[in-house]
Design a protein that fits this description.
Blueprint lengths: L1 H5 L1 H8 L4 H41 L4 H7 L2 H6 L1 H14 L4 H35 L9 H25 L3 H9 L2 H7 L1 H15 L8 E4 L4 E8 L3 E6 L4 E5 L2 H4 L3 E2 L1 H5 L3 E9 L9 H7 L3 H20 L15 H14 L11 E4 L7 E9 L4 H18 L19
Antiparallel strand pairs: 1-2, 1-5, 2-3, 3-4, 6-8, 7-8
């Protein structure tokens, strides 16, 4: 049937007295021109029809997925497939007298069909990715990496199909032949395979989400995760630079995720004052009376003084020397002062751990560590709260006759 239709114009040209060779060439040119024009008009018609349908659906439906399909021009890519199907059907008629050229033309059409199908999948996956990112439960998930995995599989199938078309063999035979070269394939796609496995583990174990603040010292990253793909994780550092980390590094190396702090009730303050050891001493009764003027320790000093005096009387402690019996120290009273100060501080979360502890003495002095949690987790506010607390404590030290340990400073040869 195709041969009969393809030779209608050829027979007419012969009847006009034209030679067979020229009639055959002119028949090919004219039929090819007609088929290409029809294919172009078909493409335009299908595109107009699909655009009208897609726009109308996008306006009427509450789900905005179709809006992303229109934005990424999925209907336009689908419209290009119909002319290719038309050409695949009618090209044998055009090349009725040129079988070798016709076979090459059909191979080209088949390859274009495969590539156009891949283009449709690529636009569809991009639309799906952008749509899922608008949903709250997928907003912090590495959707891009999964879309890339699907696209890689699509490209692999597409390229295998193209090779099968060019070599005129079946896809399964081609895959079997690739089995011997599997090591090379694994080497080529090593990063993609590692990234795919890593992205699955990261998602299943909920190790990293988009928007998390992570610190990865090995790669110099300290900021928010803005993108997770199959091969890389992009981190926008606080200085607005971008650090790119291999996805598989998230499961092979150690990094710090600050999400736990961000979703908790506070941000940890863990800092110590290094107290000069020589400034620590027992308190006399006069010292205790003087320190009672500090309101935060007034009640504490009154109660502890009574308890200590009662204990010393009961045990007959000789208080001519302060070292005998039980005694208050300026360091211990200051530790209680810091505890009371933090408990009354409005910026400290009282429901979380609050502790003032003395650490092991060092050659530089005795550390008094403050371990508490700021109720405000924002970085700049957190730093302000911590600075405000330590400003006050540093200024309060002299009232307890305590000194901060510092390295000696020499001016003009004098200590």
């Amino acid at each position: 049937m195709d041969k009969d239709l393809g030779r209608l114009l050829y027979d007419y040209l012969l009847r006009t007295g034209m030679g067979e060779g020229l009639a055959s060439d002119l028949n090919l040119v004219l039929l090819l021109l007609i088929v290409l024009i029809v294919a172009f008009l078909l493409d335009l018609l299908v595109w107009k029809l699909l655009r009208a349908i897609s726009v109308r659906l996008a306006r009427r439906t509450k789900n905005n997925f179709d809006n992303f399909l229109v934005t990424h021009r999925v209907p336009r890519s689908v419209a290009h497939i119909f002319p290719l199907l038309f050409l695949f059907e009618f090209l044998p008629m055009v090349f009725v007298d040129f079988e070798y050229a016709g076979s090459i033309a059909l191979k080209i059409i088949k390859i274009l069909f495969v590539l156009q199908t891949l283009a449709v999948f690529r636009r569809f996956f991009k639309s799906t990715k952008d749509y899922l990112k608008t949903l709250p439960r997928f907003k912090d998930k590495p959707i891009a990496s999964y879309m890339q995995v699907f696209m890689i599989f699509a490209w692999i199938v597409g390229l295998l199909t193209v090779f099968a078309i060019v070599t005129e063999t079946t896809i399964w035979k081609f895959i079997t032949a690739l089995g011997a070269a599997s090591a090379v394939v694994l080497l080529i796609f090593k990063d993609s395979i590692l990234g795919f496995v890593a992205s699955i583990q990261v998602t299943i174990n909920d190790m990293v989400r988009i928007g998390d603040w992570i610190t990865f010292e090995k790669y110099g990253a300290d900021g928010d995760v803005i993108e997770i793909t199959l091969a890389t994780v992009k981190v926008q550092n606080f200085d607005k630079t971008i650090t790119t980390i291999p996805t598989y590094a998230l499961i092979s190396d150690s990094f710090k995720n600050w999400r736990g702090m961000q979703v908790s009730g506070g941000r940890r303050i863990k800092r110590a004052l290094i107290i000069r050891q020589k400034s620590i001493r027992f308190l006399t009764q006069e010292d205790v009376e003087a320190l009672k003027k500090i309101q935060l320790v007034t009640d504490y000093l009154s109660q502890r003084s009574e308890q200590i005096n009662a204990h010393n009387r009961d045990h007959g402690a000789n208080k001519e020397l302060l070292v005998n019996g039980r005694n208050l120290t300026n360091f211990g009273v200051f530790r209680k002062y810091v505890t009371n100060y933090l408990e009354k501080h409005s910026a400290i979360n009282k429901s979380m751990t609050l502790m003032v502890r003395q650490l092991e003495p060092t050659p530089h002095g005795i550390p008094l560590e403050i371990y508490a949690f700021s109720a405000d987790k924002r970085w700049e506010n957190y730093e302000y709260v911590m600075a405000d607390i330590f400003d006050h404590l540093l200024a309060a030290l002299p009232y307890f006759s305590l000194e901060i340990s510092e390295l000696p400073v020499y001016l003009d040869g004098r200590k």
